[in-house]
Amino acid sequence: MAATRSTAAASIGLLLADVDGTLVTQEKLLTERAIAAVRALGEAGIHFAVTSGRPPRGMAMLIEPLRLRTPIAAFNGGLIVDPDPTLRPIERRALPGALVAPVIELLKSFALGVWVYRGADWYLLDPQGAHVEHESRTVEFAPTVVESFAGIDEGVVKIVGVSDDFDAVERASKAAQEHFGGQVSAARSQPYYLDVTHPDANKGAVVKWLAARYDVPLERIATIGDMPNDVLMFAHTGLSIAMGNADREVQRAARYVTATNEQEGFADAVERWILGVR
After folding, report:
1. Which of 21, 91, 122, 272 could anchor a disulfide with 80, C-beta 3.0 to 4.6 Å?
2. What is the rounded CA–CA span in Å between residue 259 and residue 143?
3. Distance CA 203, CA 160 (A)
4. What is the dihedral of CA 139, 64, 264, 271, to 10 degrees?
5. Which tens digit of pLDDT belongs to each residue from 17-59?
6. From edge to edge, which strands make up the β-sheet containing 79-81?
7. Are 253 and 242 contacting, i.e. CB atoms less than 8 angstroms apart?
8. pTM for the model
9. pLDDT tens for residues 55-87?
């Protein structure tokens, strides 16, 4: 890639990217072109950071190929860690303990499977449930199976409702927002996942945290993603890019729309609108 950047692209100081559906392919792989694009950002003096609903260990495999130096915002910002081998926590935003059981019950009322994340652990009731095997492969570790979630309330950073009934997931999302209001952040990270986190654990808050840490004005930050929870970060940044595989609601919220994650949409967006080399 050429090092010369256009005048418009020259104003970007940091790019924050979603992971699944954006940075990686449907098979959860980094392409060589995506890796090259991230490395070109570094050569151009542009910070690159990632945020995802994944746990920290689920993003550890990105550190070496992407040469990550910025903190990793896991659980949509519920846990921010150093990109070192220990994934040392920098900041944690846990759900209030008193809300954990009510959130679980609300998700169950829509017939959603429930996953609970606390620290480095992933708890669930049914190891044969929807997307468990897929998620285990994605994050590269297995869940802890429990008979109930009793006693697992303090320090919980994310609760996930899981179902292949996408309408039920959407209804549960709206119900959580209506029932708990500003006490939680509830947004879909995939059509089949509803992530419930601390109200300050959302991708919009991650943008503000990174802006303060690196002293980069919000208008000089670019964001790229594909799901409704990515719209929360689009709203705060000067340049927002939706993936071609995003639904229309997400695409309408972004300034630009790139190709899909199966068509090198991430790398294409970096080259075209961040580096300005195309």
Report:
1. 91
2. 34
3. 16
4. 140
5. 999 999 999 999 999 999 999 999 999 999 999 999 999 999 9
6. 72-74, 79-81, 89-92
7. yes
8. 0.86
9. 999 999 999 999 999 999 999 999 999 999 899
